Amino acid sequence: MPLALLALAVGAFGIGTTEFVVMGLLPRIAGDFGVSVPTAGLLVTGYALGVVVGAPLMTVLGTKIPRKRMLMLLMVLFIAGNLISAVAPVFGVMLLGRVVASLAHGAFFGIGAVVAAELVPADRKAGAIALMFTGLTVANVVGVPLGTYVGQHAGWRVTFLLVAGLGVLGLLGVARLVPELPRPQGVRLRHEVAVLRNTQVLLAMVMTVLGFGGVFAAITYIAPMVTEVTGYADASVTWLLVIFGLGMVAGNLAGGRFADRRLMPMLCTALGALAAVLALFTVTAHHKALTAVTVFAIGALGFATVPPLQKRVLDQAHGAPTLASAVNIGAFNLGNALSAWLGGLVISAGLGWTSPDWVGAALAASALGVALLSMALERRAASEPGLPGLPGLPGRTAARSSAAEDHDVLTR
C-alpha cells in the first residue's frame, strides 16, 4: 500500500479521536458547565450536524483547490476547532468549537476516500478506503481511551489540547506523504450535483444514516449506561472504549476485505447482525462480561459497514465521486446526530439508560430493509432495461446517461 494511505490514516486518527472521546467525558463536561447529561449530548449532535453541513459545503468550496492542499486546509480548521473547545469558558463556546472542528471532518474523509481509491488498482479500492479509515478505528483503541483517561485525571480541557496536537501531526503527514494528484479535467460542479439524484446513491446514503445511527444510539450514552446499569466504575469506561475500538478495527478491515468480493451480501449480513446485537444489549447490559462482549460486537458490526457503504457510493457515482463521497460521510454523522437526539429523548422520557439500544436496533433493522430494497431495484433494472427509479428520482437509464455524459466530458 502507498505511504500516502498512512498519511491519510494519521489525519483520520486525529479526527476519530476528537469525534469519539467526548462520549467518555460527557458526565464530567456536564458537571463542569452545570448542564444535564442529555444536554451535554448536544456536543455529539452538534458535531455530527456540523459534519452533515460541512461535508458538501467544504467540498464545493474546494472544487478549484488541489486535493492535497484542500486536505491540509481542512486539518488547519480541525486544529482551530479543538483549541476553541479546550479554552471554552461556557458550554455554548465549547459547542461552537465542536462545530468548527466538525466542518473539516466530512470533506477530509470524503476527499481522502477518493484519493485513497485513486492510489490503488480497481480490485483493491475498498481495501484502500478501509486502510484510511483504520486511523479512525485505531483512534478508538488508543486515542479515545487515552483521551478519556487524561480527561478523568487532568481535566477534559487537556484532552482537547492534545487532540489539537494530533491535528498538527496529521497536517504534517499529509504535507509530506500525499502526492499532488491532478484534479479531474472537465468534471464540473453540475456533474457532481447530478450524481446526487441517482436512486442507488441516495439509497446507499439512507443505509448509511440508519445503519451507523444504530451504532451511536447505544454508544453515545455508554458512560452513564455502564456505570448506572452494569455497575462498572467510572475508570472502567476507558477499557470498554478500548474494547469498542478493537471491534471497530476488526470490523473495518473485514468489511474492506469482503466488500471487494461480495459487497451487498456482506453489507446485509452485517446490518442484520447489528440489529440483533443492539436488541440483545438491553439484556446483556445488566452483566459486566456480556456487556464487554456486546460492546466489541457493536463496534465490529457497525464498522464492517463503513468500507462497503463508501465504496457503494463511489461505484454508483461513476465519473464524479468527490461530492457524493463527502456527502456520504455527512450521512454517517447525520446518523450519529439522529441517534444521539433520539437516545436523549427516550432517556429524558424516563425509559431508562438501556432504552437507546432499542432505538439503535430499530434503526439498524430499517437500514437492512433499505439495503434489500436497493438490491431488488438493481436486479429489476438489470432484467428490465430502462426501468424507472423511485418516484421523482432518475432510474437506471438516466443514471447510465449521466455516466455516459460524464465519460464524454472526461475524455474530451
Please give the count of helices. 17
End-to-end separation = 32 Å
Please report the first level of CATH classification, the CATH class. Mainly Alpha
The CATH H-level superfamily is MFS general substrate transporter like domains
The assigned CATH architecture is Up-down Bundle
**Uncertain runs:** 387-412
Main structural class? mainly alpha
| CATH fold call | Growth Hormone, Chain: A
What is the total domain count? 1
Sequence of secondary-structure elements? HHHHHHHHHHHHHHHHH
Number of strands: 0
User: Major sheet, described briefly?
Assistant: none
Provide mean pLDDT, rounded: 82
Shape: globular
Rg on CA atoms, Å: 20 Å
Helix coverage percent: over 70%
Strand content: under 5%
Notes on the structure:
By secondary structure, the chain is mainly alpha-helical. The chain has 17 helices and no strands. The protein is 82% helix and 0% strand. The chain is globular, with a radius of gyration of 20 Å.
Write the topology of this structure:
Elements: H1 3-33, H2 37-40, H3 42-61, H4 67-87, H5 91-118, H6 125-153, H7 156-177, H8 189-195, H9 199-219, H10 222-230, H11 236-259, H12 263-284, H13 288-303, H14 306-316, H15 322-348, H16 355-383, H17 396-411
